[in-house]
Design brief:
With 111 residues, the protein is α/β, with parallel strands linked by helices. It has helices at 12-15, 28-40, 60-64, 85-88, 105-109; strands at residues 4-8, 44-50, 94-99. The chain has 5 helices and 3 strands.
């Protein structure tokens, strides 16, 4: 049985950006180690990215959480630290999915 590791929204804006918090950066070494171990043993890694467009403040979420974050194309949207390399190039055993809402049917459809 192959292993699937899902790394959910570990992005700059949630670590040290718009919605970051003290200590979030301490998770990076463990996440990177888990990703590397999963890929090395033939498993798969799925990264999700919370993704908003420039009109975020005009959306339903933006009206309730008026703090722009994870805007596509910005540094805040990128995966944090050592994980950023996995979104820069297609790497065997990994996939990055952008999701515009808390749930994503794209994840279910991904193969």
């Amino acid at each position: 049985m192959k292993k699937l590791l899902v790394v959910i929204d570990y992005q700059n804006d949630f670590v040290d950006g718009a919605l970051g918090f003290a200590g979030a950066e301490k998770l990076e070494p463990g996440i990177v180690a888990a990703v590397e171990a999963t890929v090395a043993t033939g498993g798969k890694v799925l990264f999700t990215r919370d993704t908003h467009e420039k009109d975020y403040l005009e959306t339903r979420e933006g009206r309730h959480l008026p703090l722009p974050h994870c805007i596509r194309g910005t540094t805040g949207h990128q995966l944090y630290g050592g994980l950023h390399r996995y979104e820069q190039a297609s790497m065997p055993g990994t996939m990055v999915i952008d999701k515009a809402t808390f749930g994503s049917k794209t994840i279910v459809e991904a193969r």
